[in-house]
């Protein structure tokens, strides 16, 4: 079942910080949630241990890269 990006289905209230986090991953709230979901599924699919130092390092590097990109592209 693929999401129809043009359809509006719900009106919800979320905390301002949650909105900022989601829109840090994509331009819209819906797209940000989809990106975060994809990242979570990717990590779960790898079956990685949360104590694996290499995995923790990769996650930190990705988070820092995402933050830098969001600052650069949003100006």
Question: If you had to describe this structure to a student in words, what would you say it looks like?
Answer:
The protein is mainly alpha-helical. It has one domain (16-74). 64% of the residues lie in helices and 0% in strands. It is built from three helices and no strands. The chain has helices at residues 16-23, 29-46, 53-74. It is globular.
DSSP summary: helix tally = 3
Low-confidence stretches: none
For the largest beta-sheet, the strand count, sense and barrel status come to: none
Give the C-alpha Rg.
Answer: 15 Å
Q: Order of SSEs, N→C? A: HHH
Percentage of helical residues?
Answer: 55-70%
**Count of strand segments:** 0
Proportion of strand residues: under 5%
Shape: globular
Distance between the termini: 35 Å
Q: Quick check: average pLDDT?
A: 79
Structural class per helix/strand content? mainly alpha
Number of domains: 1
Please describe the structure with a list of short key phrases separated by commas or semicolons:
75 residues, globular, mainly alpha
Q: Could you outline the blueprint of secondary structure elements for this entry?
A:
Blueprint: H1 16-23, H2 29-46, H3 53-74
In brief:
This protein is mainly α and 75 residues long. The chain has three helices and no strands.
């Amino acid at each position: 079942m693929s999401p129809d990006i043009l359809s509006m289905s719900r009106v919800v209230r979320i905390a301002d910080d949650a909105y900022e986090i989601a829109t840090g991953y994509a331009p819209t709230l819906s797209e940000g949630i989809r990106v975060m979901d994809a990242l979570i599924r990717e990590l779960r699919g790898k079956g990685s241990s949360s104590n694996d130092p290499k995995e923790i390092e990769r996650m930190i590097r990705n988070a820092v890269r995402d933050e830098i990109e969001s600052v650069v592209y949003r100006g």
